[in-house]
Write a structure and sequence with these properties.
By secondary structure, the protein is mainly α. It has a domain of 71 residues. The chain is built from three helices and two strands. Strand 1 and strand 2 form a beta hairpin. Helix 1 packs antiparallel against helix 2 and helix 2 packs antiparallel against helix 3. The longest helix has 24 residues. It is elongated, with a radius of gyration of 17 Å.
């Protein structure tokens, strides 16, 4: 029996994609993963170019917020971004702490 990783609907006749999503959830979840992944990549790039600590903190917060949204999909067994959102989250929480203390 197949079971959707997003809505947990399952059953004998439930069909899911190879990612494990039903036809109702696949477009929505796919769009969210793409949107948040793009937000991470953009904020990471802007973090690297930020001239001061305040801007670096702002971009760290953007990365962290987007990564937190993606981690919940990773917890359900979906691939999100590369590197994985959980790794990005951990790394940028560390960068944020460095920016605040330094």
């Amino acid at each position: 029996m197949a079971k959707c990783k997003a809505c947990d609907k399952g059953g004998l006749f439930q069909k899911v994609s190879r990612e494990g999503l039903c036809s109702a959830c696949a477009p929505t979840v796919g769009a969210e993963i793409e949107r948040e992944s793009n937000e991470i990549y953009e904020a990471m790039h802007e973090f690297e170019r930020a001239p001061d600590r305040a801007q670096k903190l702002r971009h760290c917060d953007r990365v962290i917020a987007a990564a937190q949204k993606l981690v919940r999909w990773e917890d359900k067994g979906l691939e999100t971004c590369s590197p994985p959102a959980r790794l990005v989250l951990s790394e940028y929480q560390g960068f944020r702490e460095e920016c605040q203390s330094g």
